[in-house]
Amino acid sequence: MSELASEQSSTVPELTQRPVDFTPAPPPPEEIPWHRLNPLMLVIHPAKELIRIVPVLVGLVLLNRSGNWQQWIGLGVVGLLLVRGVLHWITARYRITEEQVELKHGLLIRKSRAVPRDRIRTVDITAEWQHRLVGLCKVKVGTGRHDSGKGDELVLDAVTKTEAERLRTLLLHRPSAPSPEQATVDSPQETVLAAVDRRWTRFAPFTLSGVAIVGALGGTIFHFAHELHLDGGALGPLRQVLDQVLTGPVWLTVLIAVAALLVVVTIASVLGYVLSYWNFQVTREPSGTLHIRHGLINTRSVSIEEKRLRGVEVKETLPLRLVQGGRCSAVVSGLRTGRGDERGGALLLPAAPLERAHEVAAKALHEAEDPTTAPLRGHPRAARMRRVNRAVMSAVGITVLAWLASLVNFAPDWLWKAALVLIPLSVLIGLDRFRSLGHTLAGEYLVTRSGSLVRETVALRRDGVIGWRLHASFFQRRAGLMTVVATTAAGKGAYHVTDVSAAEAVALADETMPELLTQFLE
């Protein structure tokens, strides 16, 4: 009995002395809160929509015109757009988690969009004039997929400038950001790669932008005149001047029209250059990001990860070549540049001295010299005949159409005679296009050049080429030529080496990426 009692007494302390864990269970992770857009957005959207109906309002209010049913429908549509803008602000919410950027909005149709943070390529901050009036801006977060259009962008319209810079720092400088809600907007030391010189406005008249500006302005004026039902005969003295010009000799009318057009295009080009590229600057941040800023009334700030840079492109329009000018753009993986470098945000330097464009390109690529300045291999003589024939046939086609139009009294008889001048000019353009053709391998870059009215020289990194496409049209096959297309996930998505011999086309593709075509070569 005593042994049993002692045995029991020895086991009890072991049970009572075991530590008991009274630590409460860890709470669930706190959910990251959703943010709303700035309420001043309710001022921006009405301002944008009211601009569109200024002609209708002038006609209905100031000119005391009742308006037709199309104008009333237009006012109704604008009213619906205003209501949509209000609903968008009421329902829009966004947040940034460790994995993705999320945006949801909509009342009747609820839409939710999430962009993985590891797929974000660019952060584009723009501030149009209506944004700047209230101190806001628009942030576009893009993954840069070429096949998804605008739907691939996540747009936050509108946020404050401080919030926009916080989002840019947070989304592109991920390693330095402690958490989505604690990211600071510390500005690291930047290295300036390019800054616009105001003396470069002398290159503006030699770009083709002035023609586009004048065309857009003419269309706007015609739209306003149509909406206000303005009669051209009521222009008074201006109408009399036009009548005197049109009743004069044809050569004098043409001369005056060309001179007036040149003056208007020159003024429009200079104004457009100043408005678009005021305080243009390209900087490199220590985190490996290129930061592009420019704009006077509408400002823009684009940030691009340098590790996505696949090459550069130097463009020279024919007038710019006459004054030794050019532009430089970046070929960036995941950044669309098919409809213009300004829209895509890849412009590294606007119209400027050509040597300055090459200097900026070399700095952007971390190279001692710009690869686009490397000596190029010429193309076969058959390529020259193709260039001249295509240019001449185009000029002959225009002349024939003008002649047929004069036969049916649709155009004056002198028009087709004036079009004959295009034929010798087309021969010169064809020869110039041939002289511009060229390609080479410069170190780690595939360099190709083509074009006359707009000559484009592209230096594409070899490791940026993801595939090849070799094709020959019927006329190319008869001439023994072929076109090599380097496909890439950057820039335009495809860059051509046009009209080379079949053997040289295969050799070029194999030399650029030998591991890709070796298995197909005999």
Q: Sheet with the most strands?
A: 7 strands, antiparallel
Indicate the radius of gyration in whole angstroms: 31 Å
Low-confidence stretches: 1-16, 175-187
Shape: globular
Count of extended strands: 19
Widest beta sheet: strand line-up: 6-5-4-10-9-8-7
Number of helices: 18
End-to-end distance, in Å? 99 Å
Our estimate of the beta-strand percent is 15-25%
The number of domains is 4
Summarize the structure.
The chain has 18 helices and 19 strands. It is of the alpha+beta class and 522 residues long. Residues 89-170, 437-510 form the YdbS-like PH domain.
Care to describe what's here?
This is YdbS-like PH domain-containing protein. Keywords: Membrane, Transmembrane, Transmembrane helix. By secondary structure, this protein is of the alpha+beta class. It folds into four domains: 41-187, PH-domain like (Roll); 198-277, no CATH class; 281-378 and 437-520, no CATH class; 381-433. Helix content is 43%, strand content 24%. The protein has helices at 2-16, 41-52, 54-62, 69-91, 129-133, 161-172, 209-227, 237-246, 250-277, 318-322, 341-344, 354-365, 381-407, 413-419, 422-436, 474-479, 502-512, 514-517; strands spanning 93-96, 100-105, 111-116, 122-127, 136-142, 153-160, 191-195, 281-285, 289-294, 299-305, 309-317, 325-332, 347-353, 438-442, 445-450, 454-461, 465-471, 481-488, 494-501. The strands form four sheets. The protein has a seven-stranded antiparallel sheet with strand order 6-5-4-10-9-8-7, sandwiched between helices. The protein has a six-stranded antiparallel sheet with strand order 13-12-11-16-15-14. A three-stranded antiparallel sheet has the order 1-2-3. Helix 13 (381-407) runs antiparallel to helix 14 (413-419). The relative contact order is 0.07.
